[in-house]
Amino acid sequence: MHFLFAWRYFRGKYAFQAIQIIAWVSVFAIALGTAALITVLSVSNGFTEVVKGLYSDFYADISVTPNNAKFIKITDAQYQAVQKITGVNALSKVIVNKALLVKENQQSVVTVKGVEPSYIKINKVSNYLKRGEFDLGNIASPKIIIGIGVEQRLGLFQEPLGDTMQLYAVNRTGKSIAQLDQLNTLSVVQSGAFSIQQEFDEQYIFTNDGFAQYLFDLAPNEISGIELSIDPTYEKQITASIKKILGSEVQVQNKYQQNIDLYKIMQTEKWIIFFILALIMIVASFNLVGALTMLVLEKQKDIHVLKSMGARSWDIQKIFLLLSGIMAFMGALIGGLLSSLFCWLQLKYHLIKLGGNSFVIDYYPVKPMLIDYISIISLVLFISILAGWIPAKRAADSFQEKI
């Protein structure tokens, strides 16, 4: 019964047309706020997915690294045991360390990552090649794949591939790259260039694991860690098996754990956006307070009739609270439909473009999520209850006065 009265008041005509106009203005104010919330959060989700995708393509499903050291010794038997674990699709030894890459008068500090040929099954960097091919060479004829940021610092991005460069790395007895007698100096040839994300493009170069071990004076079984491509359904079992084989000296991390700070920051940013826009929704709800107050004044005769029919004070208050909820829900529904239409058009036709040409996509990405719709509609209904409480209480008080 309460809902029927509230619905009738929402749809009904009023003695003063201005009241109806104000009521619909309130509905559309909530609709615009809802549409803005959903759209902005969808864009935030879209960018988050793009960034996650880039990091996901660069990082392995599972990374095994030493706990308290830069390098660790792993025997062939241990490596083969890890390789035989159920759910492991591919694995590669990894050697990671800093070095100085020099081309004539240009130089750049880089992170050298030595990997096995199987690495293309673990990391998708080969899918992001801008020039050349993913050729690591061998220990006798080493080749490197360079990030385009490193290329630009060395002035190589306009050069043909195949130029020889020098890599300077501190040897096992050295402590500083500033002392030439403590450096290993080896020549390498560029075979390709990749572009994934600025953080990686300006830092990494890839080569074969044997050459990286030789460059950094490492023993054949001495590595920075192991990276694996796995079947996600076996992740827990694989993690436990690796720890059992290699012991407590290593840490085993999945993609989320390798970038836990990044994921936390992105999630925090999303909720900060949500709460800022929620404040805008609260401001928009002031229109709802005004509209409901005028509706209460308009329906004084109805309140008197309801009192004569035996209605209680709480019944009157509930009717106007439901009316507030209906107005808010209609606004949220209209806003949700508008934002959904926009997201669909943006996904299909890429209406709004990103400025510049340095990003991996040229349009604003969007990803609507059900949890966002539920959160926003819940927020709108909560605000409507708060906004409708004072006018509904006033209606109940006027009912008491008539008694």
Brief summary:
By secondary structure, the chain is of the alpha+beta class.
Task: Provide structural commentary.
With 403 residues, the chain is α+β, with helices and mostly antiparallel strands. It folds into 2 domains: 2-56 and 262-402, no CATH class; 61-258, no CATH class. The chain contains 12 helices and 12 strands. The strands form 2 sheets. The protein has a 6-stranded mixed β-barrel. Strands 2-10 form a two-stranded antiparallel ribbon. A hairpin with a 2-residue loop joins strand 3 and strand 4. The longest helix has 42 residues, at 17-58. The model has no long low-confidence stretch (mean pLDDT 88).
Descriptors:
403 residues; alpha+beta; 2 domains; six-stranded mixed barrel; two-stranded antiparallel ribbon; 12 helices; elongated
List the helices and strands and how they pair.
Blueprint: H1 2-11, H2 17-58, E1 62-66, E2 72-73, H3 76-83, E3 88-103, E4 106-115, E5 129-132, E6 143-147, H4 148-154, E7 164-170, E8 183-194, H5 198-201, E9 204-208, H6 209-215, E10 222-223, E11 225-230, H7 235-246, E12 250-254, H8 255-258, H9 260-298, H10 300-308, H11 313-349, H12 370-402
Parallel strand pairs: 4-9, 6-8
Antiparallel strand pairs: 1-11, 1-12, 2-10, 3-4, 3-7, 3-11, 5-8, 6-9, 7-8
Helix pairs in contact: 1-11, 2-9, 2-11, 2-12, 9-12, 10-12, 11-12
